[in-house]
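Researcher: Quick test of sequence recovery. Tokens follow.
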């Protein structure tokens, strides 16, 4: 039997599951329900029905004890215990799960904190992207990814000075068909239920935002037809400004001329970041699983300025700066001892292989012991959520110029303050960054 919370929903004919956690009291509460009929036409969401008017012919609602009993009935108590332990470790307040059996869509919003979103005068309380996972992936791995990213979004929103709580949506499904308005409508419905304003992330096309906004909901941003366009360039700009402050801190100058920079990933963020480094006069070592992206960068670069390595080799190269711009979870107990960099600073999310602040502190300390300057990425990878908020609040009046100016200013100032504050207090920049905002996230 599949180890999945959605297996319980499938077997019981249910559509909705909540796992809530009060970390102050260390108390969990569960809820499960059938809240719509099998033939509900989600292409009609916000037309013939809304969040408030959608009702099943025969609703089913299970309280906490009854929902726990369902997991026991189907032999998934240990799976539930694992999920709860992950929530406890990261202090996550809610997993909000929506299941559409006929389309095999398993939607989860991994909500870490609502503190900054409460009373923000918006219909959304949270901001966090939506990413797709393959249907056959192990659910625990998907939940770990979603929870780590959701926790990072809480702190990223603080760094971006936004009145939003932090979350991340993961969806296990086949690639979305943007012409299938039942699929897109269901994603819009589930996202709106969680009071989240999202943006397409890995494995969802940017055009999802345009289709969802045109037909269903304004609680998604970042589409090609949106007023700000793709967020890759602003995100790269923020990381670039942070790296320059790292160089100033290490070498006394923001100049990156003749520095060797290893860039992992040449996607929507990594490519413009590599271009910024080349404009600085840096030498690059790059990798990407898309050979066309590599070819395009090399063709546009001065001869000899770019060296290409296989993706598996990038962590082993020797360079002044490592700028990760791909998947997370790459720096752990086994990889840190082999690193040959002076600085690690880039836009990739959740670079450390960790699921709690305490685990991040330990790995950041290991990096510092190697003489490597490292700053947790949520301090400077803030442009995406800033762009999302700009579009959400201002819509067609959004300003790309205002966004770029604010991103550059915040990433420059906050990185410089964080690096120097960490040195004054004798802690890693990662621990100092968390300490600086922890009360705002977890305090009364």
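Model:
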């Amino acid at each position: 039997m599949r180890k999945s919370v959605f297996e319980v929903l499938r077997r019981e004919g249910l559509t909705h599951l909540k796992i809530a956690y009060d970390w102050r009291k260390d108390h969990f509460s569960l809820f499960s329900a059938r809240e719509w009929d099998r033939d509900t036409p989600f292409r009609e969401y916000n037309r013939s029905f809304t969040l408030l008017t959608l009702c099943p012919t025969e609703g089913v609602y299970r309280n906490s004890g009854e929902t726990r009993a369902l997991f026991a009935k189907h032999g998934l108590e240990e799976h539930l215990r694992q999920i709860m332990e992950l929530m406890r470790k990261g202090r996550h307040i809610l997993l909000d799960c929506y299941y559409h059996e006929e389309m095999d869509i398993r939607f989860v919003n991994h909500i870490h904190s609502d503190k900054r979103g409460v009373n923000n005068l918006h219909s959304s309380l949270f901001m966090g992207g939506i990413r797709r996972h393959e249907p056959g992936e192990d659910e625990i791995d998907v939940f770990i990814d979603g929870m780590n990213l959701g926790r990072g979004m809480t702190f990223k929103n603080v760094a971006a000075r936004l009145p939003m709580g932090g979350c991340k949506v993961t969806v296990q499904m086949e690639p979305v068909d943007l012409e299938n308005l039942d699929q897109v409508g269901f994603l819009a419905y589930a996202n709106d239920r969680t009071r989240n304003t999202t943006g397409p992330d890995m494995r969802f096309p940017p055009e999802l935002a345009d289709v969802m906004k045109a037909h269903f909901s304004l609680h998604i941003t970042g589409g090609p037809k949106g007023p700000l366009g793709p967020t890759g360039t602003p995100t790269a700009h923020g990381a670039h400004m942070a790296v320059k402050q790292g160089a100033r801190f290490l070498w006394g100058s923001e100049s990156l001329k003749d520095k060797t920079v290893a860039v992992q990933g040449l996607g929507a963020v990594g490519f413009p970041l590599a271009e910024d480094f080349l404009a600085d006069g840096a030498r690059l070592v790059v990798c990407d699983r898309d050979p066309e992206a590599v070819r395009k960068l090399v063709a546009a670069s001065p001869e000899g300025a770019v060296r290409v390595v296989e993706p598996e080799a990038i962590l082993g190269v020797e360079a002044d700066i490592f700028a990760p711009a791909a998947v997370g979870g790459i720096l752990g107990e086994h990889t840190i001892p082999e690193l040959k960099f002076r600085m690690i600073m880039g836009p990739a999310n959740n670079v450390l292989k960790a699921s709690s602040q305490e685990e991040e502190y330990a790995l950041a300390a290991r990096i510092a012991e190697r003489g490597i300057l490292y700053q947790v990425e949520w301090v400077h990878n803030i442009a995406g959520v800033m762009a999302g908020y700009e579009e959400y609040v201002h819509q067609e009046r959004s300003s790309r110029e205002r966004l770029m100016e604010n991103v550059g200013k915040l990433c420059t100032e906050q990185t410089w303050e964080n690096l120097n504050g960490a040195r004054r207090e004798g802690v890693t920049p990662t621990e100092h960054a968390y300490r600086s905002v922890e009360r705002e996230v977890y305090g009364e």
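The longest strand covers residues 105-113.
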